[in-house]
Design a protein that fits this description.
Chain lengths: ~400, ~240
């Protein structure tokens, strides 16, 4: 029976966490207020790098919000009890990260006051407009799913609800990848490889976020995670990291094969200054090699190293998105192929971008919102996994 | 008798009162009507029978930027050149990497028939008028900048700072995206775009691409011209000679 009593944060830790999270959220809101007053001039974004740090944070949060639901999908759709016990926590994390990511995206708009326009006027050819529908639908689908799991009378419906969420998140991550796939003229984007790549990345990042949340909750409640469950989850995370890396490798190798794309690949992988550095050190070394070592090395693979691996995978995710989003825009558009181009508007030149404090604060604010919702959710409702005796 | 007299007096007064009232009302409404007409210009709707376009001969562009100056003046742009300043038209210098031949040309919104900016805009703020001019509705744009990501010509600018002293004919606003409007405010008055008018070499030929008898159509039929990034299949309203 002891296993069934909800694990809860100790009071003092809880209030400290809420205060810390609240402070980060307030800082984010203050940054948004500054951006609203002064305009985007106080960010590092400009007419060449039109999407910056807020988009790195927002896309990480939204993609991970979809990926974290892996845990519930494996539980509900594929009937694995160890994962089923964790499905409510995964649902909560998903809603929390979705809320954080969307808030950042919305507050970064040039006219956030016109959000009602975005909700009432849909251009059917715009994948952004579809995404507004997909994101709000995701909230509803996950909320419904949580209800069917947490309300005993509704339990029989949790499997179909889980299936709905499973399908919806595939479509949602496809929609996020397609934002970039539909950019016909940018050399970094405009390929159909991006939606599946984003889906597999979401799996890896989502698992990492789930691990961090689960380890923290167990640690603060002085509970130990069943070693069998831990082993299964870490092995799955390792496989997903490898699969995500496979897609990134395929993306770059295909580009390298096309003569018209080799200039771009040279820039991103070799001589583009900060971008190759972040790609190789941040994404490849710290975000892939090191976590895989921590997961699979026989002497490692215990809870501490899995937590470190998860944090590194998250760092790798941010590194990847920084290079993909900002590096992808920094490389000049090929408007006149075969010509060397110069102009007063940065034609033919590498775009300059220096992330500013307000936009980083805004992005962090989104993480703060996700953190706050999770912390309060775990405290007030019964979201913590209940290990059934011999459940594994 | 006196009753009849009183009656006719009263109707006379009534008649007078009505006349004065109508006169006063006319005086009160007339300036408003006049200003309404002035503000709205031509009342007939834009027609799809017209497709406005430009043919730009790059032969004389190398030492000249009159079009850029004229655009800034007409549309109230600062003319600043920082990465956050709006540039609706810019002069691009090109050098063929193989032959080293160099040339220059003015670059702006190409007013595509299949504009990617219109496709991706979530709210429909980016739109194409019936006469082919691609515009941004400044009241609906939410400032997401997806159109700037999608434009193959880097034609759009985002207003990064509050604006002052704007031109009444050219609405602009902080936090929204803008680009060349082909000087729609002038076209609707029957004038040419400012850049075409200012070009000292008459190298920017403006006209109706749908009229086979227009000067631009005749020239495009008889002389070679190219679309920038024709491979994208966007059917641009602007064509260049000499690239």
């Amino acid at each position: 029976m002891a296993n069934h009593s909800p694990l809860r944060f100790k009071n003092r830790i809880f209030y400290a966490l809420v205060a810390a999270g609240g402070l980060v959220v307030l800082m984010g809101l203050y940054a948004a207020h500054m951006m609203e007053g002064h305009g985007h001039i106080i960010t590092g974004m400009n007419n060449q790098i039109v999407w910056g740090m807020p988009h790195v944070f927002a896309i990480f949060l939204i993609v991970s919000a979809s990926g974290v639901l892996n845990v519930s999908s494996i539980g509900s759709v594929f009937n694995k009890p160890a994962y089923k016990a964790r499905a409510p926590l995964a649902g909560l994390l998903s809603i929390a990260m979705l809320a954080g990511g969307l808030t950042v995206l919305m507050l970064d708009l040039g006219r956030p006051d016109r959000i009602i326009v975005a909700m009432t006027r849909f251009n059917p050819t715009s994948v952004f407009a579809w995404n507004i529908f997909l994101y709000s639908g995701m909230f509803a689908a996950v909320a419904l799913y949580l209800w069917t799991m947490m309300e005993k009378r509704m339990n029989p419906w949790s499997k179909p609800a889980g299936l709905l969420v499973f399908v919806w998140r595939f479509v949602l991550t496809t929609g996020t990848g397609v934002i970039f796939s539909f950019l016909v003229a940018r050399q970094a984007y405009g390929t159909a490889l991006l939606p599946p790549m984003f889906i597999v990345m979401s799996f890896a990042w989502g698992m990492a976020v789930f691990h961090v949340a689960q380890s923290s909750i167990y640690e603060w409640n002085e509970k130990l995670l069943d070693p069998y469950v831990q082993k299964r989850m870490k092995n799955l995370m390792g496989v997903l990291v490898i699969a995500a890396f496979y897609f990134v490798a395929a993306y770059h190798l295909t580009n390298l094969y096309f003569a018209r794309q080799t200039g771009f690949e040279r820039f991103i992988l070799l001589d583009g200054g900060i971008y190759p550095l972040i790609f190789w050190i941040g994404y490849f070394l710290l975000g892939n090699l090191l976590p895989l070592l921590l997961i699979y090395h026989p002497a490692l693979g215990k809870s501490r190293s899995i937590l470190s691996a998860s944090l590194l995978i998250i760092l790798g995710g941010f590194s990847f998105l920084y290079v993909f989003i900002i590096g992808g825009q920094a490389f000049p558009l090929s408007i006149f192929p075969g010509y060397q181009v110069t102009s007063s508007f940065g034609d033919g030149a590498i775009g300059l971008y220096q992330p500013s404090l307000p936009e980083i604060m805004l992005g962090m604010g989104g993480v703060g919102i996700a953190f706050l919702i999770t912390t309060i959710g775990v405290r007030v409702l019964d979201f913590v996994p209940h290990e059934l005796p011999k459940s594994a | 008798m006196s009753d009849t007299n009183e009656m006719s007096n009263t109707s006379e007064q009534r008649r007078q009162f009505l006349k004065t009232s109508v006169g006063a009302a006319a005086v009160a409404i007339a300036p408003g009507m006049l200003m309404f007409d002035m503000a709205h210009g031509k009342t007939e709707a834009v027609s799809g029978k017209v497709r406005w376009g430009m043919l730009i001969n790059t032969a004389n562009c190398e030492d000249c930027d009159e079009c850029v100056k004229a655009c800034n003046k007409e549309n109230g742009l600062s003319g600043g050149l920082s990465p956050t300043d709006s540039q609706w038209i810019r002069k691009v210098e090109l050098k063929d990497m193989r032959t080293e031949r160099s040339l220059a040309l003015p670059m702006m919104c190409q007013h595509c028939a299949e504009p990617p900016c219109v496709d991706v805009c979530p709210t429909g703020a980016s739109f194409k008028r019936a006469d082919g001019i691609v515009l941004v509705d400044k009241h609906i744009c939410i400032g997401c900048r997806y159109c700037m990501m999608a434009c193959p010509y880097k034609a759009r600018s985002f207003v990064h700072e509050p604006l002052h002293d704007q031109k009444p004919d050219v609405p602009r606003g902080k936090g929204v995206v803008e680009s060349c409007t082909m000087c729609v405010q002038r076209i609707d008055k029957g004038l040419q775009p400012a850049c075409a008018e200012a070009c000292p070499n008459k190298s920017i030929l403006f006209g109706n691409l749908n009229d086979p008898g227009s000067e631009i159509s005749i020239k495009m039929r008889t002389e070679a011209s190219t679309q920038v990034r024709a491979d994208l299949g966007l059917d641009t309203g602007l064509r260049y000679q000499g690239i």
